[in-house]
Each structure stands twice: as structure tokens, then as C-alpha cells.
Design goal:
135 residues, Thiol Ester Dehydrase, Chain A, 22% helix, 39% strand
Amino acid sequence: MTHTHATELRVRYAETDRMGVVYYANYLIWCEVGRVELLRALGRSYAALEAEGIGLAVSEATVRYLSPARFDDRIRVETTLTGVRSRAVTFDYLIANAETGARLATARTALVSIDRDGRLAAIPQDFRVVLESVL
Amino acid sequence: MTHTHATELRVRYAETDRMGVVYYANYLIWCEVGRVELLRALGRSYAALEAEGIGLAVSEATVRYLSPARFDDRIRVETTLTGVRSRAVTFDYLIANAETGARLATARTALVSIDRDGRLAAIPQDFRVVLESVL
Amino acid sequence: MTHTHATELRVRYAETDRMGVVYYANYLIWCEVGRVELLRALGRSYAALEAEGIGLAVSEATVRYLSPARFDDRIRVETTLTGVRSRAVTFDYLIANAETGARLATARTALVSIDRDGRLAAIPQDFRVVLESVL
Amino acid sequence: MTHTHATELRVRYAETDRMGVVYYANYLIWCEVGRVELLRALGRSYAALEAEGIGLAVSEATVRYLSPARFDDRIRVETTLTGVRSRAVTFDYLIANAETGARLATARTALVSIDRDGRLAAIPQDFRVVLESVL
């Protein structure tokens, strides 16, 4: 596989606001869906990682909004793993209209790995190897 | 104090949908705010209850929508404790426009007390006594 | 087709709360997804209905919570159209774990049809005929 | 008044996730609350601006997460207007624990002014004058 994974979703009514478009915070939810699905495509479950006691907490997020998404649009989230270190991982995202291909937003998130007490903790070695294999 | 507690909030843009009004699921969030504030007014913190290992999980919720709430409206949530048993508690809610007094919604929730493993567990005695004092 | 339509979704991290389960208001979002997909399966788009100037506003919603949904669970939403009148429509929902079949929640919503000014307005005849065909 | 406005809010249960802290997208909702309240403190209502046909759409948002917010924390959102142009405005945010003063997050948003059709449109002159008065 490549280091970019695409997943699709349908815009929910709940995600819109009274401007008639998707509320800006909700793109970060789609980014989360994108990275969970990228991990699944790599054969790794984020839920299983947490069950091992390691979570990935977002330390920085940036979104550039290019064109609004609307109710019922089919959305494609392309997630790219862009960096892996012992206790950090970064992803880029391209959010597009799946039917027209129109680019709606780009985003970038940095995440740090933490234990159940919220302290920085190393990403498990086997998990890190899988991530590095697609860089 | 009486058994009804009122708290106010302001409608957020995020809470609206493309119909131009507050999305229907969000009224349940306001009910949650209402019961947390009722408990606080009784001198009890829901966060502290959870720190003791007991949570209150909603087992049933009903909302009747009477008139739409809109962005920036000031909302009053009147929460009434209507029943307490060893492992269950019920609340009624009246959601109104705080400026006009217009009734926007009524709601009712039943909650059960559970331990950290999700099993039914008795509400702590001191907590229950406080609740029963305002029935 | 039958009058019940099933759609599936995956629980998002955003939908969980600190009890470790899906926050109770979010089931109403899934009900909305269920009825939009039921309409689509009938060949009708809710977005198109709104483009005609008619919306369906929820007038009452009830959810019974049976067992918690958790992050990454695959969820099946079975939506059943239970009633159609000139200006109202009702749906029942069964929300289940798609892998285990465990019943997580049942719900019921009543909706009224309104025009762009929020006044009661008849459901368009062609739309109503389609709905009635599956009752 | 200064160009920084502070508003407070209480973390809702709905805003937490199963990591036990506030879900990362929700900080953008608090930023929205912050800028709406800053405008109100300046004597301007964002709802009124929209009623005139002009909206402010976020074109870019960045959040740096420093320390997690938790259920029931009192949060202070300090919003600073950092730039005004004919069709754009920028804000900085400092999100802190209102009781301890701990810095939880910093954020920055750029917004563009648009008309009801989503096209770039000038911020009304009287509105812009007020904004510029506090730069």
C-alpha cells in the first residue's frame, strides 16, 4: 500500500450549521476518522493501541478551509502519514468532495503518544515498525 | 431551595444546523448541563460522584420540541428532580427562551447508577439523602 | 423493499465521552442518518426535499438505552417508517452492534413537515406517495 | 476597552471523550464562543451581522494543545482581535483553566467575510470601524 489512505463518509445534517455548510470544527472529526482508518488499513487498530495503554493525543492541528462541504455530500478523506518518532506522529489530510473531486480542506495534525496517566510514552515498537514501513 | 433549579446558557453557532435552528440532539446536551448544575446547587458535584466510582447513565430520554431555539438566544434550563431510588434517578426539564419566556422544549430522562464496570450499583447513601431532601 | 432499512456506521472517537461509551445525545444523530438513508433507499433525497422548500422537523424523540456502544464498534441502524400523514411522519429505530447483533438502543421520532418559514406545510404529494407505499 | 476579551464557560460532559479529556475539535467551538462574545463586548452582535447578509467564514484555524481540559473545569477563553482588512479578520485565543490559570491551548483563526451566496464581500463599514478601534 502507499502511505496515503482514502476513506469516505457522508455529511450528516448534524454537521451543518445555520450558514448552510459544515461547521468548521467538524473537519477535525473527519481527520480523526481518516487516521483511524489509515491505521486499520495498516492492520493496526487504534482501539487496540489504547487497550495496550497507549493513546495518541493531538498536540497541534491546522485546517485550511478551501470550499464548503454541504449536507449529504459524499466526502473523501485522504490521510497521509508524514512522520514517526519514538513518541510522536504526524499526519496530513486532504478533504475533498468524492463526487466532483473538489478540494474542500487541507489539514495537518501532530500527535504525541501518552500513557493512561497522560505522560509521554514511547509508541510500542511493533506499532512503530508498521508506521515506519509506509513513510 | 426548591426541587427545581434553573441555569442559563447562550446558543452557540456550533449548535445550529442548516435549518437555521438548534439541532435536535443538542437539547439533550442542555439537559445534561441542567442536571449537573442542579446537583451543584445541592452542594454535590457530579464529577466528584464519578471520582468515587459511581456514574449516572441515561437509560431513557424523551424530548418534546415546541418551538425552535436559534443562534445567540439566551436559554433557561429548568431541571426538576422527580424521583430517586437506590439505583435510579429521574429528572424533568423545561427549556425556555430566557428573554421572552417562550417554552422551547420539555424533556424527561431516567438514569441508573453504575460502577466503573458498567454494572448497576447503589447511589452512595450521603448523595441519595441530599437528592431525597428536595423531592 | 420492506419498510425497514438498515444502514451501518462506525463509532467515532468524537462520539464517546469520558465514561468510555457513546454520549447519549449522539444516538439521535444516528437516527437522523438512518432516516436519511431510508429515504435514499426509497429513491428520495432529503436534501432534494429541502431544496423544494419543505423540511422535516422533529417534534418528539424518545430513546431507550439498552447497552452502551463503544469506540470503533460497527453499528447497524434499522429504521422503520411507522406512519405518514399530510404533515407528519414517524419512524422507529433499532440500533444494534453490527458484529454481535446486541441491541444497544431503540428510538422513536415524530417529525412535522414545515416550510422555509417554519410553518406547518403539507408533504409534497409525490413524496408522500412513496412513503405510503412502504407502510 | 482593550483588544482582548475574556469569557468563561464550564466544560460539559458532552465535550469529553473516552480519553477522559475534552475532545480536540471542541476547542474550536470555544474559540467561536470567544469571538462572538468579543464582538458583543464591542457592542456588535454577530447574529445581527448575519441578519444584514454578511457572515464570517473561517478560512484557517490552528490550535496548539498544551494541557488537557477536563469535565466540569471552568475555562477562560481570552480572545484577541489581531487584524482587520476589508474582507478578512483574524483572532488569537488563549484558553486557560479559570481556577488555576493553567494554559490549556492557544489558537489562531483567520476569517473571511462572505455574502449569503458565499462570495467574498466587504465587512460593513460601521462594523469594520468598531473592529479597527480596538486593534
